[in-house]
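User: When convenient, might I ask for sequence and structure tokens for a protein?

AI:
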Amino acid sequence: MVEYGRILAFSLDLIPFLPTSILPPREEAGGVVLGVDENGREVYLDWRRLPNFHGIIVGSTGSGKSTLAKSLIMDLQEEGIGAVIIDPHGEYKHFVERMGGVVIDMQENAVNPLELYTQKPETRADNLALACSLILGLSGEEEAEIREVFLEVLEKDSEAFPENIFNELDPSTAFKLKTLFEGWKKPFVSISTILEELRPIVLVYKSRGSPMPLRKSRFLTWVLLELVADYMSSKGIRSKPDVIVVLDEAHRMLSLGGEENVLVRCYRETRKFGYGFWVLTQSPTDLPLILYELAGFIILLSGPERYVRSISTIVRLGPREIDWLLYNTRGIGVLVRQGDPRPRRIKLRVRGEALEK
């Protein structure tokens, strides 16, 4: 406590007047450059200084979420970090082709939801039955029935999936479940093959102009994240991310389940297993709100007042950050990093190649 005549001031009260509160210190270089702050100093996205490398990119329609993600994917590629993109609308196909990457049409290919690495059969059966229940609106009895059948197949012959699933279910339950597995073709693509590919990979849901049904898209996304987390856990502890998984349209794909959502479970993991899930959304309140507390970083892009006010109810922003998002054009954002109480107002650095259609 400091005494000035009759005025008493606690030392913490003086923090707003200190130079470091007026002008945050220059950041130590590391990771990839996200952009520059108001004073032209570089701001970094550095996995070494984050509790995890899970992230959320929020922006209204046309704000540049996908463009920013593409630019960061290119930056990470140069750092030896791979990328798998879950692309419901085919927006990344040409970008990945230009990078010499791999395009997988998920209407012509499929993964095996029962492919196990470290998970116990009981856990996988629980998680898949929960996903089916949330997406299809099943009763408790139907969810329990599906769980038992999944578990039985896991313990006996997971390679016979999905035919052996439907043979064991009540006809009415099997009918509902088939909507999730329509067109699920063999041979399956192994998640290990996808994740060990050194080039960027995009998993496209929209084939020949025809979108995948929403329920199937949601289930496939849930399964993919489940498999990625399981496989990466099997590789053991990592000091650096091996791969990031970018999920576009996250508010449509994974808005279900609250605390039970697969993303919430994965975001609770630390960086030690070498992966990060990045979700892109234009509707911030449609994601489980706990994700904003668990994410290693959040990037908020500029936008109209209604959108910014919605964000400010979820992420703690000061008046200057709100004005920064409200009154600036595309290419402006706010970076919030877990463990850092100071949001950073930034001008994003986007590579020219990411702007190409």
Observations:
- The two ends are 59 Å apart (CA to CA).
